[in-house]
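Quick note —
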Amino acid sequence: MKKALLPVFSLFSIYAIAQHDIVWEKSIGGEQAEYLYNAIQTPDYGFIILGSSGSDLSNTQNNSSKGDLDYFISKIDENGKQEWQHTFGGSGNDFLYAAVSTPDGGILLAGSSDSGKGRDKTENSKGLHDYWVIKLDAGKHLQWQKTLGGSGNDFLRQVIKTQDGGYLLAGESNSGKSSDKQDDGFGGFDYWLIKLDSKGNVLWEKTIGGNLNEEVKYIKEIKGGYLLLGNTNSIDETVTKQDKGFDVEMVLLSQQGDVQTKKRLVSTEEDDLLHAVDVNDEQHFNLLISSIENEQRMLHILTVDEKGNTHTEIKKELKNNLLLNHIFEQKGRSFLIAGSEQGFKKDRNIEPTSFFTVFTLNENGSENWKKELKESGFNDLQFAIQTRDESIILIGNSNSKNSSTSFNQDFRMIKLGNKESKAPRELVEIYPNPTSDYVNLLIQQEFEPSKGAVYTLAGQKLQDFKLTTRTTAIDLRNYPSGVYILQFVVNNQTHAIKVLKK
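Predicted structure written out below.
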């Protein structure tokens, strides 16, 4: 059964300001439960949702259910319309936790699987749960895949593109030295990093940890190596008094994954890094942290640099039933924070409920604005993203009667933005420009399928390409450095755009 994309009409308790109107609300659901974990924005003002689904999608191309839970990926446009969806899976449970867009217009999917060889999975399992990476081309067809793991549990949480054209995978592992793991573990779950080249070949892998447990929350490539942020409750040998709970940790790594420095960023009874995001200068990070101080739950917003130095800090008491997981910095040094608030339904049967909630804090920690999106049932915010038009997309799981197609758990999406905003847009865009390999042609309007070509400045035609979707990847890898012209027709109008090949 194809998943249904349903508009939802419900009452909300709203404390609104104009730029955060509810623009639209949608749910996606099938006959079984759906679990959403992540989302990535797209250049056309839309986004792609990532998760796992147990529903049968046999009425759509390449979308029949493969096992218990399959990787599920779907493109949503800026108006909430579902453009396409795909599932990939083996015979067991496959959990899609992360993804990254690739220069050729494709996507790299990153998650964990307990499936053996069969169906979409071409390699045997290595242990209980393995890293499972899938590379899709621009048409969302499977190009290659890798199953990586040891004898235990390996959970892949994060993936980034690297400047050399490859990828860095980061997650947690309790496997010892076995299969793809070259080192014994240090304690419970350790950080496990794997560097891949552009074809998925393993260049190196590193196990990093302490005597207890580590949890990856964020990775980034920086000058000379990589930066990792996570949570750990392993013993910190640099302090004499050890807290019982988790601490927030920054780890700086070389280009080969060797640890250069480690630093604990907060020191309270227990700290939990909920979300980390780049500041605009890309040399600082805003960290959203929940902590416990003298039995009081606190919210910390830290702005830190790449060496772990704290530049600003906001502290605020936090309600115990508020589960936060995303932060965005807005204009004027204010912060938008998103999460879920838990409660109980007051009737004969006391049922837990929850709803999406969003609020803003100024630089002094005072609340400026709040929006509570109350519905019946369980509504758990999993992820929030900011799209190119500066709208906020709240994405999570819901069993609300208003959003669920079968009273199981569905994907739930709400777009917050300015309904009156009609900012001008380029109808045709080229990115990245300059480029070293691929260039993407983005058409921001409805159009009939068309054709185009790549020319030299002297007028020599090098290749033809077809325009059938709003985003088209054009391969310039085999051409020498220089300036090229993309010429194409959109709705009977001819366009010619120069592209610099580095």
